[in-house]
Design brief:
Number of domains of chain A: 1
Number of domains of chain B: 2
CATH superfamily of the largest domain in chain B: MetI-like
Structural class of chain A: mainly alpha
Number of helices of chain B: 15
CATH architecture of the largest domain in chain B: Orthogonal Bundle
Distance between the termini of chain A: 27 Å
CATH topology of the largest domain in chain B: MetI-like fold
Number of strands of chain B: 0
Structural class of chain B: mainly alpha
Helix content of chain A: 55-70%
Oligomer: heterodimer
Largest sheet of chain B: none
CATH class of chain A: Mainly Alpha
Helix content of chain B: over 70%
Distance between the termini of chain B: 37 Å
Number of helices of chain A: 16
Number of strands of chain A: 2
Order of helices and strands of chain B: HHHHHHHHHHHHHHH
Radius of gyration of chain B: 27 Å
Strand content of chain B: under 5%
Strand content of chain A: under 5%
Shape of chain B: globular
Shape of chain A: globular
CATH superfamily of chain A: MetI-like
Chain lengths: 331, 311
Amino acid sequence: MSATTSGQATVPPEAAVAVREARRRRKGTGGGRSWAQALRRDWQLYSFVVLPLIFFIIFRYLPMAGNVIAFRRFRPGGSIFGEEWVGLHYVQMFISDPTFWNVFRNTIVLGALTLIIVFPLPIILALMLNELRSRMFKRLVQTVSYLPHFMSVVIVAGLVFQLTSVNGTINQLIESFGGDVVPFMQRADWFRTIYVSSEIWQTVGWGTILYLAALTTIDPQLYEAARIDGANRWRQTWHVTLPGIRPTMVVLLILNIGTFMAVGFEKILLLYNPILYPTADVVSTYLYRVGIVSSNFSYATAIGLFEALIGLTLILSANAISRRLVGTSLW
Amino acid sequence: MVTTPVTDLPERLVRPNVPRTVKDSRGYTVFRWLNAAALVVIMFVTLYPFVNLVAQAFSSEAYINSGQVNLVPRGFNLTTFQVVMEDRLFWRNYQNTVVYTVVATAISMVLTTSFAYAISKRALKGRNVFIGIAVFTMFFNGGLVPNYVLINGLNMTNTIWAIVLPNAISVFNLLVMKSFFENFPEELEEAASIDGLSTFGVFFKIVLPLSKAVIATMVLFYAVSFWNSWFSAFLYLDDRDLYPVTVYLRNLLAAATSADSIQGGGGGDLTQIASNVQAVTMVLTVLPIIALYPFLQKYFVSGVMLGSVKQ
């Protein structure tokens, strides 16, 4: 603990203690003191923690514990932790459920399409914005492209219905080129295209923010050096810009992989209908119908737990791989 | 591959810090124009759905029916606005959205700010445990059904609490605030404690008044997410009079699509009337966000930046 040296002579001793105390609070590790001492000294800070901790316990950790009903029989109105153990009954149930494997496949396809198509686009858009010299124009493009991010998913679904309807703009375009009207929202083979397009529309602009921030941190001298070495703009982008934003790319990639299984549940729930189930039904929408609509709570919980564990495994392994290979990780 | 003419090189070596005076290669000039053109197209595609929405809201059903409404309203019509605005349920639900947003944002801010301040103090014993408790929930959560069972078990269904409590703390926002407080100039806090202020005093009299920008950003993040949310209301509320406007809109969309499915995409009157009403309802729902967006955009962006500082 660094004691104050210069001010100590002139300030009263209790103030010096207060300063040392404040320094210690900042720089110390908090270890080496008993809880009784810590509580007595920092009780005001601990009082800040009480309500939020209660929130996390009730609304985050109780539901986690509530996952035990995946292995127990649950009676509506009974205990939220179920009545009696049934072992892996519900796990076996979904393993032998063909619908489950169908929705599992749909989830992976949609997740993979989103990752492969939507993830790189903000990088490209950020690079395009980076080439603009007019600040006004750049700001205009940014303002416009961020806007969809603030739309409720209900609005996005409404816009999708409107554009894809039989009288909508897309069908008008098809007709003007001499094609036949396509009832898009009743064609299972169109759903993935529509879903990914709506994701692009809503997320790509906002996704550029972190890349644009990373771009400003690249040392201009690196470009200068590259130019002196005879690199054109394309090679400068490849050898200076992209390595400069690589840490940002890796962190966002890990986060994206972690949410791979959680493909837009709310959006799909709003957009799909039974005709679209063959491509649109994903694990989360299936377990919503099984659990909430049909009240098979335990069965749906088993599916949800499986999904959550896959998500956790994905993010942990993506993080570990990236730490080993690239040296960048979330923690 | 297009390369910069070699003749440029000596000039750059002499004055390396004035790159803009050097003429671009022809290939790069062409690229810049194409790039700008592509961005104009991107802006158009981004804005088109909104323009189309407004056009449909002011058009008459007949023109929407025959697929003639794109950029400008056809058969100018204000009656649908009148009809929707006279709907008692719509205003009731709109009012609910306002109430839920205000109450939920207030609760969220109290919990997030106090927790973030406490865990920003490195010397607080147990700090890492508190951070761990919060961060773990980003990567693993209870899932839909256990949450539903819990809210039912707590008798929160059909109350405002089911909307405002379960999502009170967003861990992302919490981490943004935490990193802001960590970068707060400690000299100020030290000076205040020398003057005899307690932790509460320092927090309320010194830290909060100097954190207005980050607080404004967080209020906006929370308010937009509560304004836009629909699923918890859809899940936990059965009473139409308690719905937020997003659920009102969702029910409208669901009614229209099911009618659509029944008719096999033929597009009868019911669907078309619904699509005009839908457009009007959507316009009225997004209006506050679109109207405020240009003024608030910079706060949102600064919030995301704050969050990324900690890396």
